[in-house]
Amino acid sequence: MNTLVIIQANSTYLNQLQQISIQTFRETFSAVNTTENMEKYISEKLSLSQLATELKDENALFYFIKSTNEVIGYLKLNMGASQTELKDDCALEIERIYVLKKFHGKNIGAQLLEKAIQVAKELDKNFIWLGVWENNQRAIQFYTKNRFVVFDKHLFTLGEDVQTDLMMKLPLKPQLKSIRPFIGAKDFACSSQFYKDWGFNELVLTPHLSLFQMGDFAFYLQDAYVKDWIDNTMVFLEVDNINAHLESITKLNLPIKYPGVRISAIQQLHWGKEYFIHDPSGILWHIGTFNN
After folding, report:
1. I need a labelling partner for 268 at 20 to 30 A (CA). Which of 50, 75, 155, 251 fits?
2. What stretch of H or E contains 43?
3. Whole-angstrom Cα distance, residue 282 to residue 260?
4. Angstrom distance (rounded) from CA 148 to CA 113
């Protein structure tokens, strides 16, 4: 294969853009869509006037990949308000990435994808996303192989046919996975049993440190006590149904089993509702739910 180059396309490339857009779209979807729906989409979305408008959009970027003088594929990226969904300033959308059928299997799509990632990093975006037809297994496999994950769905209209696209994204920056506070205990054994009775699962890490988990939430309990620290430690736990949560906690009879444990009534605040649990050491838990 001849040397490949990727260039940014502007309005002077309008005719070439329409040609590669229509040819690759037909090659990709003609076999699985009606002629009427294909031609309606092409006339509306890939007309010279529509593509000219998109080329002038400062939040859209087009790139050609060329072999000698032949355009063999192209890429369209959207930012900001020009994204078809999300409109997230921290994101870059790949709206179109197409390669001529005769060049499939030659790593051309991967080079265009790498260009998109390069642009996104230069623009300091947090992630790239795209929509891919749920029946386009070849494309889904390609993006999955390149570490994209499905995060939602949206509708895509092709002519008169309303289809479902999988929305996939690729994070470009380190992602947070959890936050785990460290809390202390005046009586480590007593506090450990208290949290197990509450419903947390204990993972003993050392004789003086345990991880307590419930679903996706976790915290570390230490065999350490400094009165001023403990007296000023507060943890907020958001729940989906505060009334049901208080009812389940009340049935555990924790204040009877553990001296110093107190459970308050629910109070209505301007931001939502909450009630309080004081653990055996005096740590204050805010159990709350926010207004919709």
Report:
1. 251
2. helix 35-45
3. 7
4. 11
Average pLDDT along the chain: 95
SS3 label, residue 3: coil
DSSP character string of 180-229: --EE--SSHHHHHHHHHHHTPEEEEEETTEEEEEETTEEEEEES---HHH
What phi and psi values does residue 80 have, to the nearest 5 degrees? 50, -135
User: Would you put residue 56 in left (φ > 0), alpha (ψ -120 to 50) or beta?
Assistant: alpha
Q: Catalytic: which of 13, 63, 143, 258? A: 143
List pLDDT tens digits, range 155-170: 999 989 999 999 999 9
CA distance linking residue 31 with residue 28, whole number of Å: 8
The pLDDT of 89-116, averaged and rounded, is: 96
pLDDT of residue 1: 62
143 has catalytic annotation: yes
User: Pairing mode, if any, of strands 262-263 and 272-278?
Assistant: antiparallel
Tens digit of pLDDT for each residue in 26-53?
999 999 999 999 999 999 999 999 999 9
**pTM higher than the cut 0.70:** no
Backbone angles phi, psi at 61, to 5 degrees: -130, 135
Which residues lie below 8 Å from residue 62, measured CB to CB, with a gap of 6+?
A: 8, 9, 10, 13, 17, 54, 55, 74, 75, 76, 77
Q: Is the pLDDT of residue 175 over 80?
A: no
pLDDT digits (tens, 9 = 90+) for 11-22: 999 999 999 999
Angle at CA 187, nearest 5°, toward 183 and 191?
Answer: 60
Backbone phi and psi for residue 248, each to the nearest 5 degrees, phi listed first: -70, -40
Give dist(CA 91, CA 72) in Å, integer.
Answer: 27
Q: What percent of the chain has pLDDT over 70?
A: 100
Q: CA angle at residue 246 from 241 to 248, to 5 degrees? A: 95
Q: What are phi and psi of 16, to 5 degrees?
A: -65, -40
